Amino acid sequence: MKRILASLTAATALAAATLSAAPASQAVTTQEAVEAPVAARYTVAAGPIFANRNRAIFNRLIANVDNAPSGSTIRAMTMTFSDTGISNALIRAARRGVYVYVAVASKACGETAVNDLQEADADLSRLKVSCISNGARGTTGTLHIKGMSFSRTGSSSKVVVLTSSNFTKTAPTKQWNDAYQTVGWTKFYDFWTTIHRQVMPDRAITNPFRQMVDGVSRAYATPQNPGQTDPVISRIKALPTRGLRIHVAQSAENGTRGELIMKALAAKRRAGASVTYVYARPAQHRSLLAAAGGTLKMVDPPADDEFLHHKFMIASWINSAGNRVYRTWMGTEVWTDLAKSSDEMVLQLASKRTYDRYRAQISYLLGL
Prior knowledge:
The strands form 2 sheets. Strands 1, 2, 3, 4, 5, 6, 7 and 13 form an 8-stranded mixed sheet that branches. The chain has about 375 residues and is of the alpha/beta class. It has 2 domains: about 160 residues, Endonuclease, Chain A, CATH 3.30.870.10; about 150 residues, Endonuclease, Chain A. α8 links the parallel β11 and β12.
């Protein structure tokens, strides 16, 4: 997969499909309704998944797909899609009676994996593939959200896997990626479903920025609205400085937006925070943080397509009551000008356990 540069432009759509969620009660023919080999005891747990040049994330996605029962719904989004292991699993699911809706950026619609899905789309009423021409909910940019939702898989319901990883053949062998799986979190499942339904028709909407708030947990989806304050810059500036520790792993930072974000991080460092920044090229304005005394590490080996692909940030600080607070922001958003007009998604979590898992990943990356 080519690095995401500010100069990236989305290709013209090869095809587009519109749909609404099919009811679970929709009749299917005997030939199509192949019973799923669902393990009754298959269950999944909420939490992060790290794929350090391996198939850990893909294996979870495929297992979830293979355990989705007939009549359930899978909604997938990705920018690029060349892994036939995932596409074959989705086709198997549709053939046994699962409703499968896939949104993919049009640049990937010539790949074998997508072609196979499109051929199955023509034969199976339950499988729909939409090739997205630009930022689906905007007029420029690109579809950059990646992940899947499952109305049911095994004994678990309302499962969402949001990931930094595209569904490519190179991701498991040449990239460092992360994912977070939510289980039974209705509010976030509904948020994912709403965004997916907006993406599939590939039509721009007015003021596309959406946000979900559930206590201290949050999620948002871009494109940003015209004139909107940047959520990443606002997030960094709002962090209290007492005992503040910030750790970032980011695959792309450039342009005016990247400069402003790095200035915000540098300001926190100068105010006394510890700031660690693990990056891949391009990281155009990393010198701003380096000059402020931040800790920087590049994870971008010289091999083509081999590079860090994370897009997460974690922070911890001491609040007014003297207690340490933990936050994790993960998802698909890169720190570039293009991302402001693209379909991106970020999930904010407040668990110390989640923070610790991502902190351990930072330590691992620093040791490479």
